[in-house]
TrEMBL record:
InterPro entries: DPS_DNA-bd, DPS_DNA-bd_CS, Ferritin-like, Ferritin-like_SF, Ferritin_DPS_dom. The lineage of its organism: Bacteria, Bacillati, Bacillota, Bacilli, Bacillales. It holds the Pfam family Ferritin. This is DNA starvation/stationary phase protection protein. It comes from the Bacteria. One of its GO terms (molecular function) is ferric iron binding. Belongs to the Dps family. Signal peptide: none annotated. Residues 17-153 form the Ferritin/DPS domain.
Length: 156
């Protein structure tokens, strides 16, 4: 990451803020996916129970990856539930969603993440941090594939 004299702190702060938004979102999403994994019912139970588990396991990996990147660039990741809920663009699940509503909620959350990842990639590129930009681009690519597959699952 190229650091401009006098602007290093600003660059790290901006990038840390963008990454911390992702940390918050992925933590809220992790809990929501785990909730859906436990509470899903109906004819799609077996398919969705397994899928939600795979997705919450992926979310846990994303949290760790993002938090460690924040530390690597000299920032500090947020790390409390209160901070996650305050910072996140996502909302918790209610626990009363139908199976299809669960899938649609996760798809909508993934769309929010994609939009915010685009913004975070721009912040990383502005800071000349190719490593972070590349990491975020890979996450975005995976989410776009999930969106496509989840949309196909709920198609009428």
């Amino acid at each position: 990451m190229t650091q401009v004299k006098g602007n290093v702190t600003s660059s790290v702060e901006d990038l840390s803020a963008a990454l911390n938004l992702q940390v918050a979102n992925w933590n809220v999403l992790y809990v929501k996916l785990q909730q859906f994994h436990w509470l899903v019912k109906g004819p799609h139970f077996f398919t969705l129970h397994e899928k939600f588990q795979a997705l919450y396991e992926e979310a846990a990996l994303r949290v760790d990856e993002l938090a460690e990147r924040i530390l690597a660039i000299g920032g500090r990741p947020i790390s409390t539930m209160r901070d996650y809920l305050t910072a996140s663009s996502l909302t918790e699940g209610s626990g009363s969603e139908s199976a299809i509503e669960m899938v649609r909620a996760i798809t909508a959350d993934y769309r929010v993440l994609v939009t915010e990842l685009k913004q975070a990639i721009t912040v990383a590129e502005t800071a000349d941090d190719e490593v972070t930009a590349d990491m975020l681009l890979a996450i975005k690519e995976g989410l776009e594939k999930h969106i496509w597959m989840l949309d196909a699952f709920t198609a009428q």
